[in-house]
Specification:
With about 200 residues, the chain is an alpha+beta fold. It has a single domain (about 55-195), classed as (Glycosyl)asparaginase (Glutamine Phosphoribosylpyrophosphate, subunit 1, domain 1, 4-Layer Sandwich), CATH 3.60.20. The protein has helices at about 20-30, 110-115, 120-130, 135-150, and strands spanning about 55-60, 70-75, 95-100, 100-110, 150-160, 165, 170-180, 180-185, 190-195. The chain has a four-stranded antiparallel sheet. The protein has a three-stranded antiparallel sheet with strand order 7-8-9, with no helix packed on it. The protein has a two-stranded antiparallel ribbon with strand order 1-2. This is Probable isoaspartyl peptidase/L-asparaginase GA20639.
């Protein structure tokens, strides 16, 4: 990174928070006792290994010319194996965009999302099965969880600007703006709307 003009942190790990260090030590102790396989990452799944704080954020957008953009960022998972690459950077798993069809950003149990290629499946349902954005998102999330048991959620926008939001986890915070209306929710089957104040 030095050749790019960035200084290397010394000592390594100085950006790791006390909370993250504590969570890792608690997770390791839980592993030694055989209490958990992996840290839970769902909103509201507070336990001593996860204080109900999650860090994934995703966005999908379409511009006036029909160009679709997708971005996904993750807070990671406590106790990950060294070298693990999660679903977030994998095109077709955590993120996928195709101007002809739509764009998807996912969140949830990364290993499950990677095995299923959740974002890719959602867009293929729109493209090949003719499902609308909402149906494709619901059906893919449900099918993935039925097949592989891990939970996930996704936000989708199709090439016509229609939005899909679905999740098999307990909760997923989401929001979108369409016209002058903001739609949002966090619980299953919750869909709230407010007029956008400009």
């Amino acid at each position: 990174m030095r050749f790019q003009g960035f200084d290397v942190l010394s000592p390594p790990g100085q950006l790791v928070t006390d909370y993250a260090r504590e969570a890792l030590e608690e997770w390791k102790e839980g592993q030694r006792r055989g209490e958990i396989e992996f840290a839970r990452t769902e909103i509201g799944s507070s336990n001593k290994y996860n204080k109900a704080e999650v860090g994934t954020v995703g966005a999908v957008a379409i511009d006036a010319n029909g160009n679709i953009a997708v971005a996904t960022s993750t807070g990671g998972i406590t106790g990950k194996l060294p070298g693990r690459v999660g679903d977030t950077p994998l095109v077709g798993a955590g993120t996928y965009a195709d101007n002809r069809v739509g764009g998807v950003s996912t969140t949830g149990h990364g290993e499950t999302i990677m095995k299923y290629c959740l974002a890719h499946d959602i867009l293929k349902r729109i493209d090949f099965l003719g499902e609308n954005a909402q149906a494709a998102t619901e059906n893919a999330c449900k099918k993935m969880t039925e097949k592989l048991t891990g939970t996930a959620g996704a936000i989708t926008i199709d090439s016509q600007g229609q939005v899909g939001v679905s999740f098999t986890s307990q909760r997923m915070a989401w929001a979108y703006i369409k016209g002058s209306t903001v739609s949002y929710g966090i619980e299953q089957n919750q869909h709230l709307e407010e007029a956008l104040q400009i």
